[in-house]
Amino acid sequence: MAMKPPQPWRTPKVYLLPNLMTAGNLACGFSAIFYIFQGMKAETPSTHSYYMAIAFILGACLFDALDGRIARMRGQESMFGREFDSLADIVSFGMAPALLVMDIVLSGFPERVAWTIAFVYLLCGAMRLARFNCLSQMESENGSKDFVGFPIPAAAGLIASLTVFILWYEGTREIGHWRYLLLVLVLGLSYLMLSEFSYPSFKKVNWRTRRSMPWVFVAILVLVSAVNFWKVVPFFLFLSYLTYGFVRPWLSRQWRREIEDGDDEFEPEIVSGPDEENERSQRGGGDKAESESAA
């Protein structure tokens, strides 16, 4: 007897624009892997192929940020889009950074050690995505909009941005003692992806978010700086997000709401005094008496 697929999967909803962004994410991941292999095959060491690979990984981060926001803004979230996004993420943010780290960072280590460390990162990233999908299906039950564990796109972005920063600083493919810093970072991010640390998803920050003039000025300045100085600024952005997860529990609720929800206008909490409470209770008693007499 042939088994029938579950009802939602008989006719999956495939929306064009969000899945087009996800396809762009996958294309960037595939291109990054292609340029990493080009760098491996090059007879003379050059940084051009690795710059291109890192640029495509950062581009995949941009596409990954757009697909979810477009889907939520247009009301086009679907199970197909979630699964497609996870498959693209494992290529762009799992395979590509693992190969990049194995070729540049771990080239001076024994081959088995390099393979093991790169695979640990890839394995933790895949398990992180699987847990994310499970929690997304239960989102209506727990009501949380936070990420449990460090998101794999941010982990890949941090690795890629730090690598391009080191390549720019050193001016050569040989990164010297920087490789030990990257090694510790890869292992630390592998742990954080499976940890219980809570990171904001910024899902409420969208195209309709209203901010004050200073916030808008800072956002435009950061965007322009990230484009013009893409070898330096993205590293500090991803590092700030990583650090924010650690200091977040000690921030006030007002600060967290302003940063994460995109809302810098707060309604004052109205506290009723004893006279207002007495007046309200007397009015309620009078209304109750009138209703009883009417009955």
Q: Please tell me the CATH architecture by its name.
A: Up-down Bundle
What order do the SSEs take from the amino end to the carboxyl end, as H and E? Answer: HHHHHHEHHEHHHH
User: How many beta-strand segments?
Assistant: 2
Major pleated sheet: 2 strands, antiparallel
Instruction: Give the spatial strand order of the biggest sheet.
Output: 1-2
Distance between the termini: 65 Å
The tally of domains stands at 1
Q: Would you give the CATH topology?
A: Four Helix Bundle (Hemerythrin (Met), subunit A)
Proportion in β-strands: under 5%
Helix/strand-derived class?
A: mainly alpha
The helicity comes to: over 70%
Unreliable runs: 264-274, 285-295
Summarize the structure.
With 295 residues, the protein is mainly alpha-helical.
Give the SSE layout.
Blueprint: H1 7-10, H2 16-41, H3 48-73, H4 79-105, H5 111-137, H6 139-142, E1 146-148, H7 152-170, H8 178-194, E2 198-200, H9 213-228, H10 233-247, H11 253-260, H12 274-294
Antiparallel strand pairs: 1-2
Q: Can you characterise this structure?
A:
Strands 1-2 form a two-stranded antiparallel sheet. It is built from twelve helices and two strands. It has a single domain, classed as CDP-alcohol phosphotransferase transmembrane (TM) domain (Four Helix Bundle (Hemerythrin (Met), subunit A)), CATH 1.20.120.1760. By secondary structure, it is an all-alpha fold. The longest helix has 27 residues, at 79-105. The protein has helices spanning 7-10, 16-41, 48-73, 79-105, 111-137, 139-142, 152-170, 178-194, 213-228, 233-247, 253-260, 274-294, and strands spanning 146-148, 198-200. Mean pLDDT is 81; it is low at 264-274 and 285-295.
